[in-house]
Write a structure and sequence with these properties.
This protein is of the alpha+beta class. The protein has one domain (2-206): Glutaredoxin, CATH 3.40.30.10. It contains 9 helices and 4 strands. It has helices at residues 13-28, 56-64, 68-83, 100-111, 115-127, 136-145, 150-158, 163-175, 198-214, and strands at 2-8, 35-41, 183-186, 190-193. The protein has a 4-stranded mixed beta sheet. The longest helix is centred in the last third of the chain and has 17 residues, at 198-214.
């Protein structure tokens, strides 16, 4: 079994694109039924506070010291790249929100075997539908849509369930050398940073499979930083 761990944030446009590219690689992988994928938590902005009316363009301009016109052009380029993968990004509708509770929801979904579906639903809710994924009721609704119990979600989010797990996974990403997301780790032998071409993901899957089946020791991790 090839273990693939994916550190990502559900408001990261490259993470959603990387998810699609990895899925395309997995479809082409002969042993795809022997691959187990686990999504792990990483927040791009842990200190993000709700800011009603703040656009993604203004938010990034403030954070990066850029002009809103510059960030708009940047997002237009990202939108075109996402469309090539069949993704519909609507940044004009994006609701800026802290993703901590969304990550806690994905941990709950993992326990119920629904994590991949939950990740996909959160990505679509944020990037396409313009939903507020920092709102507990919105999260309860989205979780119920993928088969989770809404009352369990509300109870978990009302307390601190999974809070330490989310923080621990973010720390682990740093320990593994991640300086951003998406960050993919294959069998704790190879690491790939960024929404890389599907061919690179497929190459990593094949290398780890060969090492495991042939009994070779894991080699030193490599990383690719381009997006």
């Amino acid at each position: 079994m090839v273990q693939v761990e994916v550190w990502s944030d559900v408001v990261c446009p490259f993470c959603y694109m990387g998810k699609r590219r990895f899925e395309n690689a997995l479809k082409a992988f002969e042993h795809r039924d022997d691959v187990q994928v686990t999504f792990r938590s990483f927040q791009l902005d842990p200190e993000m506070r709700p800011a009603p009316g703040l656009s993604v363009y203004d938010y990034l301009a403030q954070r990066k010291g850029m002009q809103p016109s510059e960030t708009r052009r940047m997002h237009e380029k990202i939108t075109r790249a996402a469309a090539e993968l069949g993704l519909d990004y609507n940044f004009d509708q994006a609701v800026m929100a802290n993703t901590f509770d969304a990550h806690r929801l994905t941990h709950l979904a993992r326990e119920h075997g629904r994590q991949e579906a939950m990740e996909e639903r959160l990505f679509f809710a944020y990037f396409t539908e313009g939903r507020n994924i920092g709102d507990p009721e919105t999260l309860a609704t989205l979780g119920a849509e993928v088969g989770l119990d809404a009352s369990e979600i509300r109870q978990a989010l009302a307390g601190d369930r999974y809070a330490e797990a989310v923080k621990a996974e973010a720390r682990e990403a740093g320990e593994l050398g991640a300086d951003g997301v998406p960050f993919y780790v294959f069998g704790r032998a190879y690491a790939i940073s960024g929404a890389q071409p599907s061919e690179l993901f497929l190459e990593a899957l094949q290398k780890v499979w060969e090492q495991q089946t042939e009994g070779e020791p894991a080699r030193s991790p490599y990383s690719s930083q381009e997006r």
